[in-house]
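Incident log, structure service

09:12 report received: a user says their structure output differs between two submissions of the same chain.
09:20 pulled the input from the user's history:
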Amino acid sequence: MVHSGNMTGTVPEPVSVPESESRRRELASFLRSRRERISPDRVGLPPGRRRRTPGLRREEVAQLAAVGVTWYTWLEQARDIQVSGQVADAIARALMLDRVERRHLFTLAGATDPHPYLDCPGMSSATRLMVDQLEPLPTAVVNSRYDIIAYNRTYGRLVGDLDELAPEDRNIMWLAFTDPVWRERMLDREENIRLMAAKFRVSMAEHLAEPAWKELLKRLQQASPDFREMWQRHEVLQLDSHIKRYLNPDVGLLAFDFTHLWLGPQQGPRLTMYTPADAATRDRLDQLLALIQAERVSQVEQVPVSV
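09:34 re-ran on a clean worker, output below:
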């Protein structure tokens, strides 16, 4: 006679999973699925080299949403962390969720949607195309933390060469306060950095508990005596309108008016376009773009052709 291993004949009870943990797991799976369906070019990012998984990398979503890479990784690992409405909104935009998907994200995150009737296409390929097509006008997409998400060639060469910088250093606050090249070539620097610090304080009020914001604040305080001094003033400002001037190493003095086009609610990502404040700047912008194009042609011609 063959006996079963369960002598009592009882069936083990299933292990119950707390509802909060189930929600975190479902949220993590949902975020991964939406991240993997978006190609880099749809959000204005270069394809890069080898990608082990389809779609965006975690660090790319974190950059687009202006959150920390470690924090976003924990979110996709279903760790027990809090998600504010502002952060969920930023992630929804980065992942280009439609209205139904957005509502699902907020439900799983247990957060209140600050803009419940908003469709959020995020940093689309159409926006990326517009940034490029506005050349020679320097144009960039910048989030509320001053991270430079996308930019055209003339914007990338206004002061130095943004392409040569590490992605984490492509932040206007960081460059203006700490980079020696920007210190030399950003004219009216004292006034500009004072205004930036004041606007940054207003924006940070909505992100006080978020790791990426706290990390940038800590980094600036450690690296810049100017920032420490201005931060202590507690000045606040939302908008400013003044001429921005740069001393470009290739074509000389450039003076600009500028326009912000918000890609969502104010204080979120914005498209910033610089327009010449005088005829000399317009001519020099054309010269700068011509120099950049000539450099690109020269680089292509120098690439060896394999036989």
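09:41 both user submissions now match this output. Likely a transient worker issue. Closing.
09:42 reviewer note: The two ends are 76 Å apart (CA to CA). Residues 1-5 have pLDDT under 50 and may be disordered.
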